[in-house]
Structure formats: C-alpha cells, structure tokens
Design a protein that fits this description.
The structure is a single chain. This protein is an alpha+beta fold. It has a domain of 140 residues: FAS1 domain. The longest helix is centred in the last third of the chain and has 26 residues. The chain is globular. The termini are far apart. Pfam families: Fasciclin. InterPro entries: FAS1_dom_sf, FAS1_domain, FLA_A. Belongs to the fasciclin-like AGP family. Its main location: membrane.
C-alpha cells in the first residue's frame, strides 16, 4: 500500500503539470505580412513579371493595400514564356503610365477562388480601372478549367501559387493586354477599325476641244441665235 506522502507528492505534480507545459510551449504569434515577392520567386518562372512589378513600383503598394483591405486581392502572374512570346517592342513602346496600368490590369481588388471566378458577373473590375468596362476581365469555364479574356487575348488559368484568403495568385500563360496596348497588325497603314477615305468623284469627261458638255450646249445655242438674226437682216435688205 502506497504511503500517504507518496500519494500527496504525485497529486501535487499532476496538478502543476498543465501549467508547466503551457509555460514551456510559447503561444503562436500573429502571422507576418504576406510576401508577394517570395511567392513569385518560389514559383520559379516569374522573373519578368516580378521585374515589371519592381520597375513600376507597384510591388511597393500591393502589400500595404492588401493589409488594409478586408476584401483581399487576386493577382494573375504571367510566366516568363508569356513575356517572351510578346511581339518585339511591345513593352518598350509603352509609356511609364501605361506600364503601371498594364501591371494593375493583372490585379483584382478582391479575393476570388476558382469557384468564384466561374460564377462571377463579367466583366470583373481590375485595379487598372474602378468601373466595369474596357479595363475589366471576363471569366468562363468550370472550376477545373477557367479561362480569362481581355477582349484581345484569352488564356487558361493553369494553377495557383497561392489560393488562401486574403491573397490568391494564379498562373497565366499570356500577358493580359487590353485594347490600347495590343500591337497593331503587321502591314496595317491605319489603325484597326478605320475606313479608307472615300474617293472624290471624277469630273465629267471633256469633249475634244476641252469644253465640258454643258458649255458646248450653251455655245451651240448662241451660234443658232446669231444665225437667225443674220438671216432676218438679209431678208429685210431684199425688200429695200
């Protein structure tokens, strides 16, 4: 039979054990800010997009906006191959303002899961424009295969670099160009949609002496009048 002293000691140890464990295991602290650069670097094929984010200073703004929003954010990240497949000079031909707009066109000011993108009302506003219209994106398909369209290009959303609220980062194989950034077709001498100016109507063909038909008709009438007058004069002289 255990002595009362041993039982008292064991009871005291068991009583203090939970508090001892809680002190030795620190409570998890608050999650740190989301690192968009680390997400793109971890993807391994987004150097061009990351460079454009840095060049336009958009990367400095996105984390602050993300941390101060309760709506979250969705980013479409074109691969390096997507940038390499652009027509030569596409990016170099853009002003700094349009480069910023192009980057922001890849950002939705709200978190969307793949299921959300299937049922969302098109067009979806982007950070490049606050209202629906030419700067919105259109989504079609099913949850397993969703396509995004700008009206200029259309591509499939392949997978997600991150898909947890408040940030979703989806991979796309094409740069999402909107209408004013789309390169003009080769050999086009005028912007698409313009019509060639109407050809001026040719002047009526001239007669052999260079006079127009209306003028010739007037000349013949004058000649006939002069002939009648001359005939009357000669007729009157015959009776004098």
């Amino acid at each position: 039979m255990a002595s009362p002293l041993i039982l008292l000691t064991l009871t005291t140890l068991l009583f203090h054990l939970p508090s001892t464990l809680s002190q030795s295991a620190p409570a998890p602290g608050p999650a740190g800010p989301i690192n968009i650069t680390a997400i793109l670097v971890g993807g391994g094929q987004f150097n061009s997009f990351r460079r454009l984010l840095n060049e336009t200073r958009v990367l400095d703004q996105l984390p602050n906006q993300l941390n101060n929003s309760n709506q979250g954010m969705t980013i479409f990240a074109p691969t390096d191959n997507a940038f390499q497949n652009l027509p030569a000079g596409t990016l170099n031909g853009l002003s700094e303002e349009k480069k910023v707009k192009l980057v922001l066109y890849h950002v939705l000011p709200k978190f969307y899961s793949m299921d959300d993108l299937v049922t969302v009302s098109n067009p979806v506003p982007t950070q490049a424009g606050s209202s629906r219209g030419s700067l919105g994106l259109n989504f079609t398909g099913r949850a397993s295969q969703v396509n995004v369209s700008t009206g200029v290009v259309e591509t499939q959303i392949n997978n997600a670099l991150r898909k947890d609220f408040p940030l979703a980062v989806y991979v796309v194989d094409k740069v999402l160009l909107f209408q004013e950034d789309a390169p003009a077709p080769e050999g086009a001498s005028s912007p698409p949609g313009t019509k060639p100016s109407a050809k001026a109507p040719s002047s009526p063909a001239a007669d052999g002496d260079g006079a127009t038909p209306s003028k010739n008709g007037g000349g013949r009438i004058v000649d006939m009048g002069m002939g009648l007058v001359g005939g009357l004069v000669l007729f009157c002289m015959a009776f004098l």
